[in-house]
């Protein structure tokens, strides 16, 4: 079982918080987007464009399945909850939902290459939030307000999860 699996919308801080938690707990961090990117030899944004969202989600679930039992902190992609097989895997873990309001997410993702939200980040993130919120809630053992400093988010998680 992973020590903790982080889920949340794009820009919620999953990768950053995962690295900080892993450092605090002196354990490995596995960023599933990085694993998918390494496996296919292209950045995840390019892969999403190339494969399409459905095929990308299948690749993402395969990588989650391979790593979900690692003694590590896992950072998922924001859309991992779109897949029922992924949600089933996440429900068996200490899954933490990093919640951040849409205006703050828009600030955080500015200038990035994010195919699902590039056209209009504010509108797209609001739509993704509305669509995914119940899925995040259904898999999360813990929900954390991640509209704070990384140190505060890490402290909040560490206070509720044993390393």
Strand content: 5-15%
Uncertain segments are none
Please give the number of β-strands: 5
CATH class: Alpha Beta
Q: What integer value in Å does the Rg equal?
A: 15 Å
Helical percentage: 55-70%
User: Main sheet?
Assistant: 5 strands, parallel
- What's the CATH architecture? 3-Layer(aba) Sandwich
What is the helix tally? 8
Strand order of the largest sheet: 2-3-1-4-5
Return the CATH topology: Rossmann fold
End-to-end distance: 12 Å
Mean pLDDT: 91
- The secondary-structure element order is EHEHHHEHEHHEH
Which structural class should the secondary elements be placed in? alpha/beta
Task: Give the overall silhouette.
Answer: globular
**CATH superfamily annotation:** P-loop containing nucleotide triphosphate hydrolases
How would you describe this structure in keywords?
163 residues; alpha/beta; Rossmann fold; 5-stranded parallel sheet; 5 strands; 12% strand; globular
Description:
This protein is of the alpha/beta class and 163 residues long. It has one domain: 3-Layer(aba) Sandwich (Rossmann fold). It has a five-stranded parallel β-sheet with strand order 2-3-1-4-5, with helices on both faces. The longest helix is centred in the last third of the chain and has 19 residues. The radius of gyration is 15 Å and the shape is globular. The protein starts with a strand and ends with a helix. The model has no long low-confidence stretch (mean pLDDT 91).
């Amino acid at each position: 079982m992973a020590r903790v699996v982080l889920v949340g919308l794009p820009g919620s801080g999953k990768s950053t918080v995962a690295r900080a938690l892993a450092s605090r707990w002196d354990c490995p961090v596995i960023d599933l987007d990085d694993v998918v990117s390494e496996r296919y030899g292209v950045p995840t944004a390019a892969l999403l464009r190339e494969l399409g969202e459905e095929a990308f989600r299948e690749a993402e679930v395969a990588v989650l399945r391979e790593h979900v039992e690692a003694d590590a902190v896992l950072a998922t992609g924001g859309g991992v909850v779109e897949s029922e097989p992924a949600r089933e895997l996440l429900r068996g873990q200490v899954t933490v939902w990093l919640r951040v309001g849409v205006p703050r997410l828009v600030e955080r993702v500015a200038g990035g290459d994010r195919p699902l939200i590039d056209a209009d980040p504010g509108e797209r993130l609001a739509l993704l939030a509305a669509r995914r919120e119940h899925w995040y809630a259904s898999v999360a053992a813990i929900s954390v307000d991640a509209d704070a400093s990384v140190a505060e988010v890490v402290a909040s998680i560490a206070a509720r999860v044993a390393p």
